């Protein structure tokens, strides 16, 4: 069985298998009664993830904190992340709107120093919220940014996007060699042919 991932509007995606039957349809067909299986395979798992992601907000609302240094640092990090992600998304949208860029790799602006600056910005937002939760005395609120970092790097972000992008954009291999995958860093200089 071959699975494909379709990109939908708004940055979401859908998994499809041969014959255009969705993964959910396959689970439904193989696991009657489906409603029982879906409670823990689909909805239960999503509920668990949502609960973990919400931990900093549970901590923040459980105790009033002032402008302690950790709160200020967390809010500054979250604001930085929002700005960084916004600029990265704006640069990418502008690049995509130009028909002359079809099949090319965006490697200017924030994209010159990170292959996924938008995900880096998102990660900063979640670590900022985690720090504010930590200032509330809830060390467990750091599970949320840790989970989001794992998802962005290994599951739905960097890893998912880079599985086949080299096939669609031949210059991507050079971009990978020269540019940090996630955390912005100076470009690596290619060895020049003599």
Largest pleated sheet: 2 strands, antiparallel
Alpha-carbon Rg, integer: 20 Å
The figure for the number of domains is 2
Counting DSSP H or I runs of 4 or more residues, the number of helices is 9
3D structure, described in words:
The protein has helices at about 25-30, 35-55, 55-60, 70-95, 115-135, 145-155, 160, 165-170, 170-180; strands spanning about 5, 15. It has about 190 residues and is mostly helical. It folds into 2 domains: about 1-50, no CATH class; about 55-194, no CATH class. Strands 1-2 form a two-stranded antiparallel sheet. It is flat. The termini are far apart.
Briefly summarize what is shown.
By secondary structure, the protein is mainly α. It is built from 9 helices and 2 strands, in the order E-E-H-H-H-H-H-H-H-H-H. 58% of the residues lie in helices and 5% in strands.
């Amino acid at each position: 069985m071959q699975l494909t991932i379709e990109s939908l509007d708004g940055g979401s995606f859908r998994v499809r298998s041969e014959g255009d039957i969705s993964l959910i349809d396959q689970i439904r067909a193989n696991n009657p009664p489906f409603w029982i299986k879906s409670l823990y395979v689909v909805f239960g798992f999503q509920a668990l993830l949502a609960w973990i992601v919400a931990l900093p907000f549970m901590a923040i609302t459980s105790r009033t904190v002032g402008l302690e240094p950790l709160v200020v640092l967390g809010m500054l990090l979250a604001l930085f992340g929002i700005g960084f992600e916004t600029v990265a998304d704006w640069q990418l949208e502008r690049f995509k709107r130009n028909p002359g860029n079809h099949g090319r790799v965006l490697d200017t602006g924030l994209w010159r120093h990170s292959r996924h600056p938008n995900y880096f910005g998102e990660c900063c937002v979640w670590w900022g919220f985690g720090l504010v939760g930590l200032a509330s005395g809830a060390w467990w609120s750091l599970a949320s940014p840790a989970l989001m970092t794992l998802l962005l790097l290994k599951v739905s972000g960097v890893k998912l996007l880079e599985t086949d992008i080299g096939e669609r954009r031949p210059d991507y291999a050079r971009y990978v060699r020269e540019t940090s995958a996630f955390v912005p860093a100076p470009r690596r200089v290619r060895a020049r042919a003599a």
